[in-house]
Specification:
The protein has 378 residues and is an alpha/beta fold. Helices cover 38% and strands 15% of the residues. α2 packs parallel to α9 (232-242), α10 runs parallel beside α15 (365-377) and α12 packs across α15. Bound molecules: pyridoxal-5'-phosphate.
Length: 378
């Protein structure tokens, strides 16, 4: 079955199974133990819950992987992942990984002896050079935030395999509809399900999918031991949201292309960043590893003095962090999402005061274009 069919019917366990169209939410925290001396699948919902299991089955099928996991947030997923390693283990990270991932490595896992090196992964040689005898994995995010740089997933996997390392991919920006890293050889996919999987800016959730059984056992243990698991209600909301993932992403992506086209022709705009623009050096790789480039882009305004007015003048798009929901959200990476870096470093990387990130939603495109036009011209 193709993606959207799986998204809609994937929680059935057999072809003939009748699922009530709304599914059920099993809110129980504990389950009656049926037979003395015998353990059972559902005993206590921190460890496993029927509704969370449905979501986990679904996300595994969508990523074309074997084992799926639901978490209370994207950060709960990544945190659980790194607890399976040992003090002294080292990891290579993309330079532009999500700020929260950088934060747990620097402020939490460093205390427990995990080591990290951050490199520009758009050049695979940088990854190769960063590998040490104690390296255990490579963690990438592609396309990256906020400059939409592309990392070659197959190339990263090849280097990892050569050195016996795990390839871990944060697939939040594209969702399994547009990109499936496990099919390209990656070992672990993590998601902030808060974004496209949730899709409506009303849940905080996370997910992970792996193929290897031993790895899955370790993740399952971490999830339950830590208590990072996804609630039954949020599992149900995600199952519901995922049924429309394809149509939402198709529509948001079509809106994105139209909005980019408008901005590229506007005199107040200097530059647009998007994975499949000819100016992106990763364009060919993007097209070889994903079905589309998604609905997040960034642009640079020519006049720094007009940036504040632009944000204040927006009427349809909302001034807010996050992405992946039905509402168009516009943010200023330099002041809101990339605060951990000193100003010179931000500017050197292209995260300037004039850089604006847009996560395009599902509003009518003419209304969005009109909104951006009036805000740019104010
Ligand atoms: C939002 C986000 C996260 C963190 O997810 P939460 O659900 O906020 O914990 C991780 N990675 C990326 C790429 C994100 O956009």
């Amino acid at each position: 079955m193709r993606f959207e069919t799986v998204a809609i019917h994937g929680i059935r366990t057999t072809e003939k199974e009748i699922k009530e169209w709304g599914s059920c939410i099993n809110m129980a925290s504990t389950f009656q133990l049926k037979e003395f001396g015998v353990t059972q699948e559902f005993e206590y919902s921190r460890i496993s819950n029927p509704t969370c299991k449905e979501f986990e089955t679904l996300i595994a099928k969508l990523e074309r992987g074997k084992h799926g996991f639901g978490f209370s947030s994207g950060m709960a997923a990544s945190t659980s992942l790194f607890t399976i390693f040992e003090a002294g283990d080292h990891f290579v990270f993309g330079l532009d990984i999500y700020g929260g991932t950088f934060r747990i490595m620097k402020d939490i896992f460093a205390k427990f002896g995990l080591e990290a090196t951050y490199v520009d992964t758009t050049d695979l040689d940088n990854i190769r050079k960063a590998i040490r005898p104690n390296t255990k994995g490579i963690f990438i995010e592609t396309p990256s935030n906020p400059l939409l740089d592309v990392t070659d997933i197959r190339g990263t996997v090849a280097i990892a395999k050569e050195h016996g390392l795990l390839t871990m991919v944060d697939n939040t920006f594209l969702s399994p509809y547009l990109q499936r890293p496990l099919e390209l050889g990656a070992d672990v996919v993590v998601h902030s399900a808060t974004k496209y999987l949730g899709g409506h800016n009303d849940i905080i959730a996370g997910a992970m999918v792996v193929n290897d059984d031993t790895l899955a056992e370790k993740i399952r243990f971490a999830q339950g031991a830590i208590g990072a698991m996804l609630s039954p209600f949020d599992s149900w909301l995600l199952i519901r949201s995922i049924k429309t993932l394809k149509v939402r992403m198709d529509y948001a992506q079509a809106n994105t292309l139209r909005l980019i086209d408008f901005l590229q022709g506007h005199p107040a705009v200097e530059k647009v960043y998007y994975p499949t623009l000819p100016t992106n050096k990763g364009k060919a790789i993007q097209e070889s590893q994903a079905l589309g480039a998604g609905a997040v882009f960034s642009f640079v305004m020519k006049d720094e003095k007009k940036v504040k007015t632009f944000f204040e003048a927006l009427r349809v798009a909302l001034f807010a962090v996050s992405l992946g929901g039905v509402e168009t959200l516009v943010t200023h990476p330099s002041t809101y999402t990339h605060t951990e870096f000193p100003e010179e470093e931000k500017v050197a990387r292209g995260v300037t005061q004039t850089l604006i990130r847009v996560a395009v939603g599902l509003e009518n495109i003419e209304d969005l274009i009109a909104d951006f036009r009036q805000a740019l011209e104010r």
